[in-house]
Amino acid sequence: MAKKKKATTESLSTEEKIKAAASAVFTRKGYAATRTRDIAEEAGMNLALLNYYFRSKEKLFEIVMVEKMTKFFSVVWGALENKSMTLEEKTSTVVENYIDLLSENPDLPIFILSEVRMNPAQFASRFSLAKVLESDFMKQIRKQHKGLHPLQFMMNLLGLVVFPFVMKPVLEQTKLLSEKDFKAQMAVRKKLIPKWMKAILATI
Amino acid sequence: MAKKKKATTESLSTEEKIKAAASAVFTRKGYAATRTRDIAEEAGMNLALLNYYFRSKEKLFEIVMVEKMTKFFSVVWGALENKSMTLEEKTSTVVENYIDLLSENPDLPIFILSEVRMNPAQFASRFSLAKVLESDFMKQIRKQHKGLHPLQFMMNLLGLVVFPFVMKPVLEQTKLLSEKDFKAQMAVRKKLIPKWMKAILATI
DNA sequence: CGCATATTTAATCATTTGATTAAAACCTTT
DNA sequence: AAAGGTTTTAATCAAATGATTAAATATGCG
Fold first, then answer.
1. Mean pLDDT across chain B, nearest whole number?
2. What sign does the dihedral A156-A157-A161-A162 (CA atoms) show?
3. Is the pLDDT of residue B127 over 90?
4. pLDDT for B8
5. Do A176 and B130 touch (CB under 8 A)?
6. Contact between A163 and B163 using a beta-carbon 8 Å cutoff
7. What's the Å distance between residue A31 CA and nucleotide D15 C1'?
8. Chain B residues with CB inside 8 Å of A33's CB?
9. pLDDT of B1
10. What distance in Å separates the CA atoms of residue A101 and residue A162, rounded to the nearest whole number?
11. What is the C-alpha separation between B138 and B145, in angstroms, rounded?
12. What sign has the CA pseudo-torsion B67, B71, B72, B73?
């Protein structure tokens, strides 16, 4: 029943291939719309291997999900708690890192957001974002801008950075922006969002 | 085979009940995760009625989807093409209308965005957003702020307005904001976003 | 090699799920 | 109330889908 031992480098590679395929398909179509056969096909392997290496669709999903989430949050987390950067430096770093990450993984936001919506409880139990409120970043905002709830600032920052990627399918399908133009405009945003965030804070 | 005639007020009401239930469940769980039995249960009716009134799950979904989309776009559309409002007035109107709409329908954005991602082509064929680029709103932006792609402004506006609702499940599940606090902060944003948008434009 | 263990495959299962059907219940009209 | 239509129900179907199994193949080791 148990297969604790791993074996050749081949086998590990098979496992990795399945995980990579699962990651791609889950991210593209979401949990519910993904069939295990899709994953097997994408990986170019027999369906049964999926259950051999990862017990079930759900377990495989969980693994992929945690990896994606970790990736998504760690990008921002490093900058938020850095005590030697000014608020503006932190902002620039977050913007730059995020736009880079999302340019490589444009499906990531919708995927995470819709899966969290489908199962909010298990997300909360796994990722405690409360520490965000305690971060140095939030402290700086609180200190410099007494009136505003720090999450307002956070929502602005994420909205400006993430939302374009959420809209990407809409923009490209309606021909409002080609893939190339989108990339170019995101490069522009990298420079502009920090300035905009500064301007926003100055209004308060 | 055909049932062209409609009948009593009762029957219409049944049809409407099914559509309402479908709307609720589809919006909450997305197309793929929704089972026709979920809808029947939510409507408190026999499963077969669903196929009696609307041929198939897909057809029912399509109807719901078009209604949601129309709702979502018409809110913004009215303001965008109004020739007698200044850019700032248009912005305020869009912000206010959207925050009101989304407060009543917080699931709407994720639902639309993830379904569009699943089937971008049919979305594009049904909604031609190209006219957005021709709207009076866009013209004003182009005139007043030559350097910036008007879609940048649009992304900012929608990002600031819509993104908080997309994050809502995350914020509430992680206890960063209670439902009540969220509502309060959205009320704050109604006032602030127009100011922020103005400040953003001033930086260019 | 020859054995043991790990990996892979093809076939099959059980459940879920969208859809259909035939009969029952309900209305409306005469 | 009987006829003729519409609406609703319970039962059932066929296909899809996640999972398992038993046999086949490959791999490592003495």
1. 91
2. negative
3. no
4. 35
5. yes
6. yes
7. 21
8. 30-33, 118
9. 31
10. 10
11. 10
12. positive
Percent of chain B exceeding pLDDT 70 equals: 94
Q: How far apart are CA B185 and CA B163, in angstroms?
A: 13
Backbone torsions φ then ψ of B18, nearest 5 degrees: -65, -45
Min distance A54 CA to chain B CA atoms (Å): 22
Distance CA B55, CA A36 (A): 28
Q: Which of B113, B133, B185 to mutate to test the interface with A (most CBs of A within 10 A)?
A: B113
Closest of A134, A149, A131 to residue A73, by C-alpha: A131
What mean pLDDT comes out for the span A126-136? 88
Between the CA of residue A13 and those of A4, A18, A45, A71, B27, what are the distances in Å? 16, 9, 12, 22, 39
Spatial contact of A190 and A99, defined as CB atoms under 8 Å apart: yes
**Does the CB of B34 fall within 7 Å of any strand C atom?**
yes
The CA-atom distances, in angstroms, between B65 and each of A117, B31, B139, B164 are: 19, 10, 30, 22
- Could you tell me the end-to-end alpha-carbon distance of chain B, in angstroms, rounded to an integer? 63
Q: A203 vs B195: CB contact, 8 Å cut-off? A: yes
Report the number of secondary-structure helices (H) and strands (E) in chain B: 11, 0
Chain B residue with Cα closest to A134? B176
Residues B117 and A110 sit within 8 Å (Cβ to Cβ): yes
**Is B179 a residue whose pLDDT tops 80?**
yes
Query: CB pairs below 8 Å between A and B: how many?
Result: 162
Residue B3 CB closer than 7 angstroms to strand D? yes
B34 CA → C13 C1’, Å = 25
Determine contact, residues B93/B79, Cβ cutoff 8 Å: yes
pLDDT > 70? residue B31: yes
Cα distances (Å, whole numbers) of residue B62 to A57, B22, B54, B110: 29, 11, 10, 17
3-state DSSP helix/strand/coil % of chain B, to nearest 5: 75, 0, 25
pLDDT at position A12, please? Answer: 60
Subunit contact B156:A160, Cβ cutoff 8 A? yes
Please give the model's pTM, rounded to 2 decimal places: 0.91
Q: Look at residue A187 and tell me whether its pLDDT is greater than 50.
A: yes
Whether A169 and B113 lie within 8 Å, measured CB to CB? yes
A126 min Cα distance to partner chain B (Å): 10
